[in-house]
Each structure stands twice: as structure tokens, then as C-alpha cells.
Amino acid sequence: MSRRAYTNEDGTVRAEIVAEQEARLAASAQTHGVDAEHVESLLAAVEEDGYVIIPKLISDELIEAIKREAGPFLSFEGRTEFEGYKTRRIYSVIEKTLACNPLVDHPLVLALLDRLFMPNYLLSQLQVIEVMPGEVRQPLHHDDGFYPLARPRKPIGAALIWALDDFTADNGATLVYPKSHRWGDVPSGEIDVSQMVPAVMPAGSAVFFVGTLWHCAGPNRSERSRWAATTQYCEPWARQQENYCLAISRERAKQCSEEIQSLLGYSMQFPFIGFVDGRDPKRLLRD
Ligand SMILES: O=C(O)CCC(=O)C(=O)O
After folding, report:
1. pLDDT by residue (tens digit) across 152-165?
2. Bridge partners of 231?
3. How far is the CA of 45 from the centre of ligand 1 (A)?
4. Is there a domain that residue 83 lies in?
5. Residue 169: domain span
6. Would you say the CB of residue 174 lies under 6 angstroms from ligand 1?
């Protein structure tokens, strides 16, 4: 057996690899410069309810910069009921602007994700979303529902909806169904929407939830549009929703932080998932 083998002959992961991963996990909060107890309390809330609202994670200046830079790309209304016929979305955001990058690799978010997923988890989606006045409620869904695996189960992904405007019960605040992350397979038509809770929060806050939680964008009954960004992540062995190695050019990826490069796919889950020519794809950005 080679020295780099990942598992023992009985199929268990080699002790030194487990030890290295555990040490990295234990140091995660410190590595990201966040309070470990805060991370634990957020995770406890997510475990209990499937989601947690994290107040005021980003500054008004960052919100203004995102709106200024992303605004010109918000030009098309949705093509499907799911996208929302009165909702505008930007995909391939990083190719268009780097303004949302501080959301993608926000230290507190990375500390949470470190605890939920295997190392080298990935960015699955980054969108800017503008829900226009008169938009109806989005169809109910849970974000990892497109992976054909029976529930109840561990989440394969997690997401944040970042409020770039105050989220109110009237202007389309994300509706979440508390504790629905624990449900088995349920047809969406059987879900009692009246039990859903709007993620009311001031601009700059975010609602963090696991991919098994049922939710949707609420109807916008106000006079003004509701801006949000969403960052969504998945296990390193699951396929990303947006194919970032094709959507984001290598030149653009080079302008991102190492964390974002890894999240885009310039990373590999040792020993075999995500390699290029038998080696870690990170080198494609360095050579
Ligand atoms: O905009 C929102 O509040 C939720 C959007 C969402 O869940 C989605 O588009 O998948």
C-alpha cells in the first residue's frame, strides 16, 4: 500500500488523516478569527430549528457597493415560476463583480460550514436576487432536494439569504418552516404555508439554514423591491448547482481569496474527488 493511501485495508480512514482533520476542525473558529462559543450557539439553533437569523453581519457600505456594482446586471425578470416572473437574479456573479466576495468567504460562515461539512466543501450558488413589488410567493422547496436521496437525512448543503434591504413580513422576507429539516419525504402540496415564519431582519443580517429546510421567498406586497444575495454551499462530493469551473474564468478566480478559489472548485477531497491530471487543481492558479 502506498504511503498516501487514505484508508486502511479494513476500509477505515487512516489515523493520521483523521487526526489532521480533527486538529484543523478544532482550530476552525480561531483560524477564522471568530468566537467559538458564538459558533456553537448558532449551530445549536440550526440543529433545533433548521435555521438561525444572524443579525448585522455586513456593513451598510458593503451593501451599497453590492447594489452599485450588481445593479446594472439585474436586468431580466425570471423565466419560470421558481425564478419568479417578477424577480430579477444575477448568476455567475463572481465573473461579473467581486463585490459579493465578502459574503462568500465571510469568516463566521466558514466557521459554521467547517462544522457541518467535510473539508473542501464547495460553493454551490451565489446569486443576487431582487424581488419586485407584486411578486407572489415562490414555490416551496429545500435546497438540496435535487439530490435524489431519501429523507430524513443529513443536509448535503447549507445556504444564507443575506438581507440587502430590511426584510419585512410584507416585502418578501424569506419564509422558513421551522424544524422541517427533520421531516421525511413530503410533497410540497401537503405543507401548511400558514405555519411558515418570515425571516424578518434588518439589512445586513442573514438567515442561515441547512439544505433540508423547507423555505421560499415570500410574496412582495410592498411598494418597493426587496434585494438579497444568497450564498449556498455543498459537500465536496456533491455536484455544485452552478458549474463554477466553467462559469468563472481562471483569470477571475486568480483575483479571489484562497478560500473562494477552494470553494469554486480549485480544491480536492483527498484522495480522488476533484483532481486535475492526478493532482490538486490549486496549482492551475499558481503556475
Ligand atoms: O429570495 C429568497 O428569499 C429565497 C430564494 C430561494 O430560496 C431560492 O431562490 O432558492
Report:
1. 999 999 999 999 99
2. 126, 160
3. 21
4. yes
5. 36-286
6. yes
Is 215's C-beta closer than 6 angstroms to any atom of ligand 1? Answer: yes
The whole-number pLDDT of residue 1 equals 38
Where on the phi/psi map is residue 179: left (φ > 0), alpha (ψ -120 to 50), or beta?
left
- Here the CATH number for the domain that contains residue 115 is 2.60.120.620
Q: Does residue 2 lie within any of the structural domains?
A: no
Ligand 1 pocket check for 217: Cβ under 6 Å: yes
pTM as predicted: 0.95
Q: Identify which of 138, 196, 205, 225 to mutate to test ligand 1's pocket (most ligand atoms within 8 A of the CB).
A: 138
Within-domain flag for 24: no
Domain count, the chain: 1
Nearest CA to ligand 1 atom 4: 217
Q: Which positions of the chain have pLDDT values less than 50?
A: 1-2
Residue 118 lies in a domain: yes
